[in-house]
Amino acid sequence: MSYLTNLECSHCGHAYDADQLIRLCPQCELPLLARYDIEKAKASIDRDALASRPASMWRFHEMLPVRDLENRIDLGEGGKPILKLKHLSRSMGLNNVYIKDEGQNPTGSFKALGLATAVSRAYELGVREFVIPTAGNAGGALAAYAARAGAKAHVYMPSDAPLVNITEVQMTGADLQLVPGLINDAGREAAAAAKVGGWFDVSTLKEPYRVEGKKIMGYELAQAFDWELPDVIIYPTGGGTGLIGMWKAFDEMEKLGWISSKRPRMVAVQSDGCAPIVKAFHDGQESSEPWQNAATLAGGLRVPVAIGSRLMLTALRDSGGTAVAVPDHHIMQAQQKLAACEGMFVSLEAAATIAALEKLIEDNWVTPDEKVLVFNTGSGLKYRLLLV
What we know:
Strand content: 15-25%
Radius of gyration: 19 Å
CATH class of the domain at 82-109 and 209-382: Alpha Beta
Helix content: 25-40%
Mean pLDDT: 96
Structural class: alpha/beta
Strand order of the largest sheet: 4-5-13-10-11-12
CATH topology of the domain at 82-109 and 209-382: Rossmann fold
């Protein structure tokens, strides 16, 4: 069973019934977050017995929003490994660099976690037709989980999205619409079509449940490190659902008594061709402003407007973290370096975390013995092959 109790606005704090179909807070049009009965969960879940459950996202089903596990739409998401990067660590003068490999998820990216949860919960609440704007991977994930559920998916993505993302959407029989421009342009068209068609829009943080799937990365990394969080987490940041989700997971786990109050220093990484969160962080802003003329080869980082910017910036500041922008040519070099050192062909977004780590080392922001965790958010095999 799920211990889901209600939804709460991330800004005004207003509470809403979790068993209604709802997207944003009706009062302030900002993200809603799922809340759980922590006391009941604390009394009934044996933290140390969780390892005996199947290694999937649903291992933590009590802290996920699906009421009846018969309604979960499951393709084997979650439970992906954390690997120590021994050779890369040595080459950087560090001792403890790790990577969580979410590229092993269904559809080849971490988007599977969020869309599995969002589709499962919306399906449980009666939705049978979905729409999403996407840079690529989220569209492929929605198409896959909608197909698995027997539902219909409408996917709006930029016309220059990677061919593999276009192909995977088409293979499921989903309705694909290619839109000139960026993801925010696709978002406008998707929202207009959803209003006409009555479809449920699962845009990033514009419904409450994608973030719940992404937060499981936080639960999994805590379990992998024997319930002691790393010193630094470096995360590639577009819409920021994963960063927000992990920060939420840490709060939940502390309240459950599973971890201490110690938090990692959170680092958001963006391309210098599209870095609204980095700019807002260093300018001392509470939320980010739209980035003009966004351009980067890392499609998942090409997000000029993020509705969750306030939540991201709060997590960065409260953790004593920072935000780093890196140029595309450094991202490409880092992608090749990781493959040569460790045999891992990761996405450009993931490679950006390695480029950022190099910069943090130069700035003496990371010390040699700190435990540093980076994320591979997607398989490099899903991207155009680019020469360094």
